Amino acid sequence: MEAVIEVKDLVKEYIIVKKESGLRGSLKSLLFPKKTKFNGVNGISFSIAPGEIVGYIGPNGAGKSTTIKMLTGILHPTAGSIKVCGISPQADRKAVVRKLGVVFGQRTQLYWDLRLGESFELLRRIYQIDKAAYEENLAVLTEVLKLHDFMNTPVRQLSLGQRMRGDIAAAMLHSPSVLFLDEPTIGLDADAKHAIRNFIKEINRTRKVTVILTTHDLDDVELLCSRIIVVNNGKIVEDGPIDSIIHKLTPHRMLVVELQEPCDDLSTPNATVIKQEGLKIWYQFEKDLVSAPELIAALSQKLPIQDISVKEPNVEDAIREVYKTTATV
Amino acid sequence: MVSSIKHYVSVASCFARLAVQRQLEYPLFLFSWLLMIPIQYFSGIWMLKIIVDRFQPLNGWDFPQLTFLYGLGLISHGIFVVFFINTWSIDHMVINGGFDRLLLRPMNVFFQLIASYVNFIGLIDCIPGIIIFIYGCEIAGFEWSLVNIGKLILVLIGGILIRAAMFTGLGAIAFWTKRNGSMVSFALTMLERATMYPLSMYPYFLQALFTFVIPIGFISFYPAAEFLGTDNGGLELPLSFALWTPVAGLVCFLLASVIFRYGMKNYESAGS
Amino acid sequence: MLQAYWYITKMKLLTNLTYRFEVFTAVATNLILTLASVFLWQTAYKGGSGAVETLTLQDVTTYTILSITLSTIFVCGVQDTIYYKIREGQIVTDFYRPIPLLACYLADDIGDMLSSLMNKALPLIMFASIFFGIPWPASFQSFLLFLPSCLLSYAILWLLSALVGLIAFWVMELGNMGMVKDSIVRVLSGSIVPLWFFPDSVQTVSKFLPFQYTYQTPLGIYIGNTNAGDALTAMSVQAAWIVILFLFLAAGWARTKKKTLIQGG
């Protein structure tokens, strides 16, 4: 299938002015500012197929936002090529942005002092959506995002969760085929997060909208994304289905054993005790060396076991592992 | 082409309606402006009267003529402030990433910048402008013929385009410097002194600068001198300034939009 | 205690010095204003007109340059500070701070003043001197009297600003009245056209208002239009205004504080 987004060897260079401290430093940088170059995005390539939900994640300053801004035509890349729906956003911005919906979690596009509907009407005119299609689409969005209650409230009086739903609706009015969400759940309560995640799944299923999501909330990633791309220091460090990344990055499993009575010798081959709290003992083992049943069998022969459980690593562990191993040199 | 114009008009009118609605959310807020702006401009013309009464006409410009010039300059400033005030925030938008949202919409960015804010409050600048200008016309003996009114409209349009071009060009510098230059107050001061006072007071170098390099003189000084038949410092052009001002305005405006477009390529959406 | 204020002042000074570009344009703006004003005076005095005036063209030129220079130094951020703090509702938390608020705002403004002296006033005087010659004082004595008079002027301006800032507490919706005050001060302080040129009636009224004691008094001393004896009298009027305004401010501030703390914002 033809890719929706095709990125090749993308580079974005920034020039940073260094400021020095102290009165002397201030005076010095007043007259001779020091400039250095650095690549915020440093050779990124990937391609995204229609209908995917991709988590684009990385620590602060990794180059996430910069990449998103280049994909949406806001920034011009220093080098490399971008194709969105077969068109370069730098060559024909207007054609590309018609197909995109973009939500910045920390920056609303709604008018602060006006009712939601008024911002929507402006967007209807900007995107030249015909009245009938607009009404129909708005009805669906209102239903799914539950906008009824606050359609006529000035945006400044909305809760963060309501505002975010309004913002997402605003981004979907022109029925884009790709939706970019930058931190869509930041600062929201559990209910609002749930509603937004459901909406994303829904539009992905029914309208085949491709979704690219940047987030620090790994629950978003776990619940929504079929694939994640991890960036750090301007480079892609991992790209693939969530399960395989977890598998690859965290070879360790954890076995938690609760004993009936205290024992002196807890040691066992193939596993190490990493924590002990009263009668509870945590064993760490590598799944390639020994399987969980084997280990349990070995331990139960040796120790009086009351209860036992195996802990799977989660995305968070995996991501932390990635950040650690790819941290700045 | 026609549908494209329709599209832009439809968006512009919606933008305008929303902008006025937003400003009327806090109507009392206008009160301080309503006091400050008339005080500022009426006192300005009063200062001129004190100086002329005490000394002499300024290079041949007596008080009625000065009032006409002052009023004309102020009206053109007032209309500019209503329609083009967003050109003042270009540098801020460059630094805060304010162009991000405009770039995400399938319309011309400069159009969105200008259209997105019709500054209703700017009408307050027009009030003293109109009062002073009409008073100036009265005492300076300006003839309200159809031809003169037509010329006046052309001069105002040209003058507003020159102003818009100046602020756009100055604001666009921020695309390269990435600095908030507070160029606005600089340009405002310069414009006020060159459009509301006779340009011929200044040394020849400045007169030439404000005529040929930054054609501020075309906004009000040369047209006013032509309307009233006063000394304009020696610039002779064929035909009328009602023609030259719009021409200068269009040239500047096109130039500024080219600079803006180039600058946009340098845009680095700041922030996260 | 004083150390805390000095710290505020120093921080303000340092942050201001890092903004290179703003400083350049601020100097350019004031230079334009100076040039335009002096050229206006030159035109008015042209051809021997004004020979009968007590002020010579040189006097007026010096007056104008110094007036604009003073306006860059006399920083009264306090009116905006109070206005915004009230608007954002921050004033309540500030009241709970251990040190007097107004003194903090003053320390802040003094920091601005010191940095402006270095990066705005000095360059402006230098450039203006290139165009019109150095604006010397009338005598060494008048210079010595000019300095304390300036400090008194600043005190009057600052107190006025703080008072106007307080208005926001009662009628916040009306916007920032500081702008209105500024436009009145500009005219009635004689900062643009010395009040001596104004009609007599205006001059008489003005004697009973605080405004002319902010710009015209020190500038008159500087150019020697006010002799030493009159200068001392003028300075005592300045001092009297400071006392009056201070009493108003203290009363207004106390009421504001009481009302704020009772309402909790």
From TrEMBL, chain B:
UniProt keyword terms in alphabetical order: Membrane, Transmembrane, Transmembrane helix
Bilayer-spanning residue ranges: 26-48, 68-88, 109-135, 155-176, 197-221, 241-260
Keyword Isomerase: no
Keyword Lipoprotein: no
Xref: Pfam families: ABC2_membrane_6
Protein name, entry field: ABC-2 type transport system permease protein
